Input
Amino acid sequence: MDQTVSASYLSHQHVAFPDGLMLECGFHLAPVEVAYRTYGTLSPRRDNAILVCHALTGDQYVAEPHPLTGKPGWWSRLVGPGLPIDTDRFFVICINVLGGCMGSTGPRSPRPCPDGRCEPWGTDFPPITIRDMVQAQKLLIDHMGITRLFAVLGGSMGGMQVLEWAAAFPEMVFAAIPIATAPFHSAQNIAFNEVSRQAIFADPQWYGGRYWEHDAIPARGLAVARMMAHITYLSEEALNRKFGRRVRSAPQGTEANPGSLFGEMFEVESYLRHQGSTFVRRFDANSYLTITRAMDYFDIGAEYEGDLSRPFRGTHTRFCIVSFSSDWLFPTSQARLLARALNRVAANVSFVEIDSDKGHDAFLLDEPDLDRTIRGFVAGAAEYARIA
Output
């Protein structure tokens, strides 16, 4: 628990925007802080910037050790000198989303107060959308003096942000790479998110979302939420390959595995419990609720009577859509739906389905075909854009 609480006091590179922004729900959120990391050097013409958008439980530490866990950056195999997203050539920006818990304004941020005795927003934090996240990112991009991003890319929820960038600010996005994502959140995915949220609400340490007042966190509920979500990130093939039906027995001379009714534990159970326990040490429960709801709201065609092509009408952005054959959370069928919508407006679009048995998480794992796809598309787009 100490690690989780201390996350509130980490110092993050950020910019504060006193005027804030108007959210889609009609609430004017101010001030707004946007936390971020950058890698590489911005060119004199400011034309080599790449925005990497993180997924639900990611953050801005894309290519360096995480300040809480010490683990390598979540895309350190893709972002760096000489890598597919080459920081010797490009200026890479990664931003903690609005509603997050690693420095950007979110439920754990202090709520503005006239008497100076500020407390966290908690569950009073206004509902946000993927569009709100992108609007907050644009505040930072404008602050940096960048008028056009060479590329925007990301996977899962990061891919939703990519699509929102391309739809809302097409003149600012030269190339877009939405990976393992969809043009709207499906009913099945909304259902999974709701089960995860209910696990948090059911935790006795929830205290109506004001757990900090009790020096507590809903660790058990948040861990179950993470375990539930993590199952959806993997394929049946990946689970069988990694764990099968192997049982982990308690070492001789020790007590049975804690939390087990049967004195032993399947390895897949142990793995999920580890995922849950490590997650609660770096993520805030109210942020998890806020961000999962933002994903649920996402529907790029909602304002166009469900027509997924109209948001991209007239676009000059070059698209590369990537899906994975074993991803059942954001299946290839949804990626094809997006590709067909872009084709209807004569967009410049490439579509790649990568054969992988790693499930949705393939975009975060060692997947050479993804690396080659990104490297090739970025190189081709840079040549077309005449980026040195």
